[in-house]
Amino acid sequence: MTVSQVGPPEVQPAAQQAPAGRLHGNRALLTASAALVLAVLVLSALSLSVGAGEVGAGDVLDYVLGRHGARDSSRLSLVVGDLRLPRTLTALAVGAALGTAGCLLQAVTRNPLAETGLLGVNAGASLGVVVGIAFLGAHSGYGYLLWAFGGAVLASALVLLIANRRGGGSPMRLVLAGSALGATFGGITSVVIVNSAETYDRFRFWVLGSLAGVEGFTKLTSLAPVLAAGFVVALLVARPLSALALGDDLAKGLGHRPGVIRVVVAVAATLLTAASVALVGPISFLGLLAGFLARAVTGPRLTAQLLLAGLIGAGVLTGSDVLARVVSRPFEAPVSVIIALFGAPVLIGIVRSRRMASMGMTDPAADESPKGGRAAAVRAPRPAGSDSLVVRAGSLSLLVPRRAAVAAFALAALLVGAVVLSAYAGQSQMGLSRTFGAVFGSGDRFDVLLVQKFRLGRIVAGLAAGAALGLAGCLTQTLARNRLATPELLGVNDGATAAVLLSATLSGTFGAWWAGPLGALAAVLVVTTVSGGLGQRGYRVLVVGLAMSALASAVTQVVLSRRSLNSAGSLYVWTSGSLNGRSYSVAVPVLIGLAVLVPLALVVTRHLNVLRFDDSTAASLGIAPGRVRLVCMLLAVGLAGLAVGICGPVGFVALASPVIAGRLAGPLRVPVVGSMLVGSALVVLADTVGRIALDGAEIPVGIVTTVLGGPFLLWVLLGRSAATRV
Questions:
Q1: Rounded Cα–Cα distance for residues 414 and 409 (Å)
Q2: For residues 644 and 508, which has the higher predicted lDDT (pLDDT)?
Q3: Phi, psi of 500, rounded to the nearest 5 degrees
Q4: pLDDT at residue 360, rounded to an integer
Q5: Distance set, CA 293 to CA 310, 342, 343 (Å)
């Protein structure tokens, strides 16, 4: 027997095939890289050849090569040298930067959803730029960079810190932490610009993310060192970051320091993102798209991923910029909208992939199902008498849940106090006695007019909208078995907002309240269809909802950018969620909707309690889960759409109301009534704070709830309760 025949016969063929497999992989990678380089060159040529000025490819080629005296032509120097060439080089640099940053974040978090836009980094950079514009007169170059860098550093540090608390962060925690901080930063940004028409006028075009304002090489030259530093750090950290993918212990064994690696990655991503935002504004989805495609081509080789992600990002942004110049001539479409049309489907594809199931992207309810363990102990039914009071009247008896009844009375008292405070507070300095007299029609005529016509009508509208949002949030959270599944996180609010603005643009008149429910219904149909339904796929619904929100928000920003400053300013206040000018007549559609939908919600409350368990348990108790979900989803969409149609998207009320009401009423019941009471109180109190917080100015109620709602979402996200953990 020869030596070659000793041992398992499959070892030798495998050893012979390994180099061939590696060679084949390297050859495929080289082929893909060459194809990408060629595509980027072609797109760059198109970018130089397409645009206003009637300068074709031949003229551009003559100018670039210096033939036929082309560089002596003032027209070619302006169109090619000052406009198209700087714009193309900026698109290539920014696209490569965002692609590389997205790939870095995905690698360090081991999460294909990690991206500068979804993780709140863009929102932090945007806040920094807006603060610089509003208070320090920043307008370009290093002025933008300094503030964008500071905001991006703050956002990235907070997101990574929050998501990795208590045993490390799952992909869903990371996305939700970014969403929460992004919302808070966005709310603060709105506070800054809502009271400054000049700042808003500059911000509404910048926030779309566009290369239309790139003229000359001044900005690109000033920020080139920052981009270069980011690229160099990214390449230097690639090898240690590859070791970190094996786990912290193995990385330490190989001589690396995981903490230092993560800090260096954060610095590189922040440099690249901050410089990109300073150059062209915030652009979402590009890093996610580039990182995902690069990983699909290269596999686990991180250095190759970074290089290809940079190429893909450069090509996608350049191609999107070319499309932006063509699709709506003679105007330009925002490049961020073009990228969102590509990025949203990719995000949805990632979420629906099998890989996500192996990364902890599971429905929180799946870990809380009452099949044993701690969750079963928490949710196990108790004897009725332990928490209920029997009320008898003759032959009739009623079982009243004691804790829920006490909570309802306490919330009703809170609501009355909120109404009194809202009627009393304001800029007119009326006393409490004068306010009460004006409520009942006595006293000074001006006081009566102010309280009864303006304040009380506004309060009624706030009560109706808050009740609708609270009930919608309660229904949505119960359906998804997830306290984080609320209308605003499912794209309902943004869909309704976009529909109302589109109806105003098409009809020429604003106030079509019916467009809100229609837009909300369209958004939720898309989200639930693409995600595969609610049921056990709560994480899919949340992430697809984020994609839907991004698309709808882009549509909203485009509509606002096409209107005059005065019109856009008033509409922007409404899109932030405002009760200003709302009265009894405006609240009528919501009140009618509540009168019809609330009794239906109370009827299905028993079914909602059963739906908190799994579908098989509900079916064994005689409940049809699919039918109940359809009815409740339609109820939630109708309520949320009505509220948005009346007062705009008031964020986080639908999230906070059921959580607060559930804590007060206990975990054994769906807090339908309590959620409505809490929602009404929150909207009225937030509107009051917005009216009195700034002297001589008003902060829309939606901005107040967004600024405060971000920290509340973080509290829910990081809470110790298993019911809120993701």
A1: 9
A2: 644
A3: -65, -45
A4: 42
A5: 11, 12, 11
